[in-house]
From TrEMBL:
Gene Ontology molecular functions: copper ion binding; dopamine beta-monooxygenase activity
Protein's name in the database: Copper type II ascorbate-dependent monooxygenase C-terminal domain-containing protein
Organism per entry: Musca domestica (House fly)
Gene Ontology BP term (one): norepinephrine biosynthetic process
Family label: Belongs to the copper type II ascorbate-dependent monooxygenase family.
Pfam families recorded: Cu2_monoox_C
Amino acid sequence: MDPNWRHIIPPGQNQVISEGQCMEDCTAYAFPPEGIRIFAVMMRTHLIGKEVKLRQIRQNEELPPIAHDSNIDVAYQDFRRLSTPVHAMPGDRLVAECIYDSSSRKAITLGGLTMKEESCIVLTLYYPRQNKLTTCHSLPSLPTVLHSLGIEQLATDSNPVLISSPPELAGMTLEARLLSYDWQNHFNDFQDATRSGSFKPLCWGARNHVVP
């Protein structure tokens, strides 16, 4: 998942699930016809991550996870060799699924690069080499994020960003909504919206350009 503010982890929850998608179009474009074989992975979260899984979906069928760590340790995040290389084919979807425990936090945690923020990243080592794709991830679309917070529309060209609808939220800043949202009573709605809502796939080539 792209380390971005749209990656939101509500506070006070024993389990929050986030997913980063490497879409079928990306692997179909980049992987050689015979596919690749993944032989090692590094799974990364920050301080409140507790579980990471690299899922594999082929033609809408979920295959066994490529890798799964049910007790992620922020102090030990290195490449781990798989007991058997896993075959990934063009057109497969790869999903980084991260589970967080935010029960000790009183405020939301956003995606980012610092340790006080959070991440959901899986790096892979594989063969044979391909040079079309370097980074493959996703982030929730802005409409998905807004819907998860009960926001219908933002005001255009406002700084700070203001909510324009629904009427009961009109004039409130987006930051204030994030800070004041009733996560305890609406967490399930938020989780459903972020897991089933639309997202933006991001596939980057070796020269830092979007592919395909």
